[in-house]
Amino acid sequence: HFCTLVSHLSRVSVSSGAQKQTITESSVLDISSCPITYYGQKYEQLYVNFTGQKIVFCFDHFYNPENKGDCIVGSSPNTRTADFDIIQADSFLDQWIRKKIQTIQNSLRCSVQITTQVRRSMITLALFNFGTEAALTLEAYTIGPVIYTGQVSKVVIDKVQVNNILESYQTDDILDISGCRHSGTVYKPGTVVNSNPQICSSVTCSETATLQTSGCGPLEHCQGNDICMLDTTCTVTGPIIDVHGQINSIRDRCAYSLFSTPSLPDFQVQGHFDDRRRKDVSFLDSVTLRVDRHDIHLEQGGRVQLNDSTLTLNSSSQLVHGVQLSKDQTGVTAKLSLSNLNISVFFDGDTAQIRLEGPAGSSVEGLCGNSSRSLSDLRLSKYSSTSCEMQYSEPADSTINCTSVTERCNLLKKAPFSSCNSDIDPEPYITACTDTLCKYPAVDGLNCQFLKAYARACSLHNHTLDGWTSKTGCSSEAFCQDRTCSDHEFCGEKTVGGDTRCFCRAIFASKYQANNSLGDPTVCKQNSASLTLVGCLLEDKGIDYSTLHLKDPTCRGQVDELTHMVTFSFNSSNRCGTVVTANNSYIIYQNTIRSQNYSSDVIIRNDQVQINFSCVHSQPNINTATFRIRDWSVAQHITSGAWNYTLTIKAYTDARRTKLVKWNTELQLNQKIWMELKTDGLDGNMVALVSNSCWATNKASPTSTPRHDLMLNGCANRADRTVQVQENGQGTSTYFSFNMFRFTVGSADIFLHCQLHLCPKQGNNCIPTCSKAARRYRSASFTYEPEAPAFISVSWTY
């Protein structure tokens, strides 16, 4: 009999003690030690309050007639008091309840009991915890009706009613309050619901009240007919918001794999990151689509390049290697459809958004896909510079107000953006926005970049955010559209909201700023020199390159249209006012870059510029060569420091130097021979070749004896009347003649040695000054013998 059973249970039940209390007013009871799963919803608190005619036990809030929620409602007790206790479980009670309710599968863990008096009856409400399942019992010792109603979100679940029980009898009832909840609907245990195939979902509430759902995944949507399709978007600015809504940040300036999928092994989206105004913050700089080994580059300013060719695009799609390319005022869009997958890549010069649509189960790899992979795994070293991984630190920008920045970024949770919040979570965009703008100034369109990215992500899911541009002061058009900057530059604002120009990237500029320089070191060559200035550094100083020139005002800088570098140069054909000086060891070329209104003592001040540059060349080392007259000629290529030229030595039998001495030419003693020492590669307008001295020996060594001098101090030796110097110090060649002879002692060979130097023409008379004193006869150490073979060795110094 139940009354006996209840009495027995009362005797064996053990209270937890700490939870037992008397309730005299509206209270919130802590039942976390015995939580109750009420029709699929687990609760750890119980709200008890007394109304005019009722006592109400609610799980989610105090009772409100307008919104009853999850509540059990009963008649108001006589004294507005109730006793509350948590009871530990025992096996006998567990068996009894599961015998009464055979749908309960789990074991009893504990119970919550509340006892109160209603008129002349004592009522005990017990809530039993069976893990994911739960049961309710009601025990009454009175006569009269008592109604308890369980409601979930205004839906009546069941009703317990005790009527006309004699006072001498005890009666009871017990109720299974297990269930599952899904999307606002309650399901009984053991229920399987196949929903409308147009939404691709089914719900199963197991026998133990465990909810199981099947349907489209978090990145998918239902196409109908129980078909799920993948539809996901990745947004890349500097931070990356991947397809799962997770954020990753790039701190270096390398190339990374942004997007790929195993379904398309020959397709990959790459992103190259670079710095702008700060060395420690990187942004997406360009996007590359690799399609079947072809590279399509989406770059700043809306420029699109296929390999090394620039494409001309407009709003009409152009098919390039299977990719539909188009361009409008908002940016460039690339679309690709392969293997039931639709991929679109949008890039406006600052932000890339990659969307994938395809069959369920398609996976995304790269920074847009699996955020758990390390950056080193996704870094593309082949497409990155060797120093790209180096990271920098800079002091915080004290002008940034992070509070106002946060308010700006939080606009994404307000109208009109809020209409999209249910489909596109704004939190990743807000985090990316605040993380960036709290350390980087809100210039160059960055104040709108994240708002624009979120608005476009919403548009991809058919959300039109009317008026968002006017409410935020932003434009939907791409920033810096059609302005092309070089690799070491980025497009930015001259003033906030003003005109744009190309600025030097911070890391690139730092190497010049450290030396207070505007360009690279002078490039010195043998016959020319050049100095290259950095265009964006000149603009930073307010210098107009078109007003600059060398000492000769007609010599102006040449601008490289790709790099925007400005180069000033001079050479042998146009010296541009270059001054050439020399000392014993060096030859110096000097010129100056000036502005049109320069003053002589000014380096840089406002629009006045004077930049001196020079090239200093060391005199070449001494070199030696051997010349055999019958071998026609000898030529030797000489490289010494910046000098790079060829010296050719020839012998002739006529004054016009048309009859070259050949191997079969018969030479007689006292026959006149004309010698030519000619250089190729020297700048004859700037330097002259001067033969200081020439002498003959019958051995290869220049210091051997006997010795006979043919030229001394650049002039013919007065002791040998046959020597004549036709040209010396006038150009880049030396010509002289002498009559053949032989030494009377030693070898019959004759070696000729000459010592030469280079003489700067500007400001110098390079032609030796020779005396007209009477010449003497040859010394007795040599004579003329026609049968002797002749060899000439030439050595020269500068």
From TrEMBL:
Keywords: Disulfide bond, Signal. PROSITE patterns: VWFD, ZP_2. InterPro entries: Snake_toxin-like_sf, VWF/SSPO/ZAN-like_Cys-rich_dom, VWF_type-D, ZP-C, ZP-C_dom, ZP_dom. The gene is LOC116335910. SMART domains: C8 (SM00832), VWD (SM00216), ZP (SM00241). The lineage of its organism: Eukaryota, Metazoa, Chordata, Craniata, Vertebrata. This is Seminal plasma glycoprotein 120. The keyword Disulfide bond applies. Residues 523-777 form the ZP domain. PANTHER family: ALPHA-TECTORIN-LIKE-RELATED, ENDOGLIN/TGF-BETA RECEPTOR TYPE III.
